[in-house]
Amino acid sequence: MIFSRHWAMPSGDTFDVPPIRDFVQKYLLKSRVSVDPFARNKTWATHTNDLNPETKALHHMDAQAFLEQLASCAVKADLVIFDPPYSPRQISECYRGIGLEVGMKETQSAALYKRVRAAITPICTDDAIVLSFGWNSVGMGVKRGFKLVELMLCCHGGAHNDTICIAEQRDQKVFNI
Fold first, then answer.
1. Residues contacting 16, CB < 8 A, separation 6+
2. Looking at the 3D structure of the chain, how many domains does it have?
3. How far apart are CA 42 and CA 131, in angstroms?
4. Using N-to-C axis directions, what is the helix angle for 109-120 and 63-72, rounded to 10°?
5. DSSP letter for each residue of 62-84
6. pTM of the model
7. Cα 132 to the chain's mean position, in Å?
8. 10-65 pLDDT per residue, tens
9. For residue 112, what are the domain limits?
10. Cα 65 to chain centroid, rounded
């Protein structure tokens, strides 16, 4: 497993942070079909989605519904980028930003992450890479058949949380344990 730590100023657009941008692009260069269910204005992936219709993403759906639609069309990705809102406050801001009601149910980040991760697995090729970003290193995990291949911390200084960036690869041997 590769481990690294970098320092960079924070940004509301995760992939505008140079070391994080470089982390993603390294994997995108090797990818044939990629999916980003929380793309915002990044158009790097083959299939992009963002709930906000004002973004440059190709689709504007709930992330789980977007992934399920890809699965129903038999899309198989060798790279998936998982960069959801990191906190209940960020989830609330995203929903309110497009005029949706926000309550306790909508701001449960653990529930959102679980739903979306479950929808990612069916679209992954047998050796797919999933890049996950946030303030924890949970990722896809062994129970879904993934092994950690790279972990990068991006320190933002002061009282800012680090951004934790992980790359996991699907591994049938791990899944069959």
1. none
2. 1
3. 15
4. 10
5. -HHHHHHHHHHTT--EEEEEE--
6. 0.91
7. 5
8. 998 999 999 999 999 999 999 999 999 999 999 999 999 998 899 999 999 999 99
9. 2-175
10. 15
